[in-house]
Design goal:
Largest sheet: 6 strands, antiparallel, barrel
Number of strands: 15
Order of helices and strands: EEEEEEEEEEHHHEEEEEH
Distance between the termini: 51 Å
CATH architecture of the largest domain: Beta Barrel
């Protein structure tokens, strides 16, 4: 599939690697032609997201049960028929993509999840446009994150991280989450803290130990050392398996 074939009005997932972090943003397709697709301008208040030459940008498009991915596209603010949009450029066809094909590493350790709960009393005291912004925060906008800190309370809970990949995690916890709910957690590693934010894709009641609910989640943001951590854990697991075979 080429960019010109993407349907208007459909969502487009945008993955950005910048310095030490990975980000995921979703916006709506407004325009598509040969070698270019444009989405609704990514902005928070009056702050428009600006792509850097050093950014690594991938985009993912889904049509029914099929997905396509374009790697290393160029992103920029463009003007189409007088409207400012974010445009992405590639002359290559998208490759078939399946999120579940990402290598999943069994982790099997308890972690602490953090998530936000709205403070309605604080929100009532804010101007309408400020309250609206606080409900649609983009991770890269520190000013808007400040608004969120004032209007939300951070809750922590215990969880069991079953498996992890470059695209997401599977966790057990007793907390009740719903699709698109987000939480964050940190994993200690030899490469420094691995910081992750994830959104719930699916859930089911399934217990392990003292935890009652299972959630399959996709990452919305991670620190860059996640990849190093995964490779090191995979190497250690293979090494341990080989040692067991040798002892036998």
């Amino acid at each position: 599939m080429f960019l010109s074939e993407l349907r208007l009005g459909r969502p487009l997932e945008i993955y950005i690697t910048r310095e030490e972090y990975h980000y995921r943003i979703v916006s709506r397709i407004e325009y598509a032609e040969e070698g270019c697709v444009c989405v609704t301008l990514i902005a928070s208040g009056n702050r428009v997201f600006q792509f850097l030459d050093t950014d690594i940008v991938d985009i993912v498009y889904q049509e029914q049960d099929r997905m396509w991915k374009w790697n290393n596209v160029k992103g920029a603010v463009v003007t189409v028929e007088g409207d400012k949009l974010h445009g992405f450029f590639s002359d290559e066809p998208g490759e078939n993509y399946n999120r579940r094909n990402a290598f999943r590493l069994y982790y099997g350790k308890e972690i602490e999840l953090k998530y936000l709960v709205r403070d309605d009393a604080q929100l009532k005291n804010m101007k309408e446009e400020m309250a609206l912004s606080s409900q649609r925060v983009y991770n890269y906008d520190k000013n808007t994150d400040g608004i969120r800190e004032e209007c939300y309370r951070i809750i922590t809970c215990k969880a069991f991280l079953r498996d992890i990949s470059e695209s997401g995690v599977g966790v057990f916890t007793n907390e009740r989450f719903f699709p698109e709910d987000e939480f964050s957690f940190t994993i200690d590693s030899d490469f420094g803290p691995v910081e992750c934010k994830a959104a719930v894709l699916r859930m089911k009641d399934s217990s392990t130990g003292s935890f009652r609910h299972y959630y399959g989640c996709k990452f919305t943001e991670t620190s860059r050392n996640l990849t190093k951590f995964l490779y090191e854990q995979q190497r250690l697991q293979i090494q341990n398996a080989n040692n067991v075979i040798k002892r036998k």
